[in-house]
Write a structure and sequence with these properties.
Elements lengths: L1 H12 L4 E2 L1 H14 L8 E7 L5 H8 L1 H4 L3 E6 L15 H4 L8 H4 L2 E5 L15 E4 L9 H9 L2 E4 L6 H11 L2 E7 L9 H5 L4 E2 L8 E4 L11 E6 L2 E6 L2 E5 L15 H7 L19 E3 L13 E5 L11 E6 L15 H12 L12 E4 L2 E4 L3 E6 L5
Parallel strand pairs: 2-3, 2-6, 6-7, 13-14
Antiparallel strand pairs: 1-9, 3-4, 4-5, 7-12, 8-12, 9-11, 10-11, 14-18, 15-18, 16-17
Length: about 400
């Protein structure tokens, strides 16, 4: 129980990631470049936020007129309701307001709205934000926030990493446009991948390979999966690799064709040792497809099915490729040509590691290397669109 509580506390603290202004600005610019009116006359909701500190709120409030927004809504989650109980001090902005309530400031969430020129200076910006306490904690699952969700046209935020699956389902249920941050591994979720396959959700414009730096609490718990940098621009930050934007807003980068070499040229000139100098691409033992371990090694003239890394989606062009499915245990897509027995999985483990155990060959694509069955990392199965049957 103690270990479980410690793990929960650590996860809660590691959910306290705050997106930096320039990362929001860079991503949003891609949608404006593709469609300058993408936000015009739209109500934008920023949930899972802290409006007084959030760069999402600051960014969209400062650009309210330029984007042509109809209304901006930003909500926060009550400090007392959070699993992570960090030090909380109300801002002077809140304390100097006549509606300030010492008890409500920790027990209730807050809502900030922006829709008109309150200050009378002839423009609508961050100085015109109006706020009040929510009647609830501000949990996105509450009736109060769900009502705001239904009012909004576009939902934009960085939800807690531990709640990403639940939060995405909350958005999809309402059939809203959105732009949210999550981990690249979310692609493998059974709730998300079918939507990617149907071209209803795709990756954002920012290349996820660089990772993102987030502002974190002073007592942030360092994890091996993060690359820590003590300070950036005077703030404590942490680099999270494999983080990307998920969206259903269109941008130009996803329509950019991926330049490719032929099968023959890849085998002759590829920079990857797994391909260069080989007679042919490896073929899966349990799928009628070839193994392509790197996106830049996809052959331009192969007409069959190819297994590619999930990172392929960062370069996926829906006009160029068809997504057939994904290698996984449940064989949801009916693409497996072979299911391994328990005895075969045990034998494969002993052959590879020299000791008793079970090698779950049914969890992914399997290639034969040096006479041994070798499971590869999770693969997406694709075809060239102009050759798809």
């Amino acid at each position: 129980m103690a270990n479980s509580n410690l793990s929960n506390a650590k996860n809660a603290k590691n959910d306290e990631f705050y997106t930096q202004y320039h990362d929001i600005e860079k991503e949003v610019a891609a949608y404006l470049e593709y469609n300058p009116d993408v936000f015009r006359d739209k109500t934008v909701l920023l949930p899972c936020d802290d409006p007084e500190w959030s760069n999402f709120t600051k960014f969209f409030a400062q650009n309210f007129d330029r984007f042509g927004l109809k209304k901006l809504i930003s909500t926060s989650y009550a400090p007392d309701s959070k699993t992570y109980k960090g030090y909380y001090e109300p801002t002077l902005f809140e304390q100097n307001d006549p509606q300030y309530d010492k008890e409500k400031t920790t027990k209730n969430g807050k809502i900030f709205t922006l829709s008109h020129d309150k200050s009378g200076d002839g423009k609508i910006d961050v100085n015109d934000l109006e706020w009040e306490y929510l009647t609830s904690s501000g949990d996105f699952k509450s009736h109060e926030i769900m009502k705001l969700r239904d009012e909004a046209d576009i939902i934009i935020t960085n939800p807690p990493f531990s709640l990403f699956r639940e939060f995405l389902a909350w958005i999809v249920q309402a059939e809203k446009q959105f732009l949210v941050i999550g981990n690249i591994n979310a692609i493998t979720y059974k709730e998300l991948f079918p939507l990617i396959q149907k071209d209803k959700i795709w990756l954002g414009a920012t290349n996820f390979n660089t990772g993102m730096y987030f502002k974190v609490p002073d007592d942030f718990v360092y994890a091996d999966s993060y690359k820590f940098e003590r300070e950036q621009n005077g703030e404590k930050v942490n680099r999270v690799p494999g983080v990307c934007w998920f969206t259903n807003l269109d941008h130009g980068r996803r329509h950019r064709p991926l330049p490719l070499m032929s099968v023959a040229d890849n085998l002759k000139f590829s920079s990857h040792k797994e391909i260069k100098g080989k007679i042919a691409y490896a073929h899966y033992d349990n799928y009628n497809a070839i193994e392509v371990p790197y996106t830049d090694a996809i052959p331009s003239d192969y007409t069959g099915t190819m297994g590619v890394p999930i990172t392929f989606l960062d370069k996926y062009n829906p006009e160029q490729f068809e997504i057939c499915g994904m290698c996984e245990n449940e064989n949801l897509y009916g693409l497996k040509t072979k299911i391994y027995t328990t005895a075969e999985c045990k034998q494969a483990y002993f052959a590879k590691f020299g000791k008793p155990g079970t090698y779950d060959l049914n969890a992914s694509g399997v290639v034969i290397r040096d006479g041994l069955q070798e499971k590869v990392y999770q693969r997406i199965l694709i075809k060239h669109k102009n050759t798809a049957e």
